[in-house]
């Protein structure tokens, strides 16, 4: 595997697909956290959302590496 995705002749980095997947997972998770009132306990919401996205991205990358290797 060369780490690139062929999308109708356009080569995209594999990390771009992982970033999109992590973003799509983070959307309902952030909505759930807002609905439950969890953000009242968070000091800086955008910073927390960024950290949550980075953790999700790491999880998506490690899962994709485990399943594709």
From TrEMBL:
Keywords: Cell membrane, Membrane, Transmembrane, Transmembrane helix. Pfam families: DUF1656. It comes from the Bacteria. The keyword Transmembrane helix applies. The chain crosses the membrane at residues 6-29, 50-68. This is DUF1656 domain-containing protein. It comes from Methylobacterium soli.
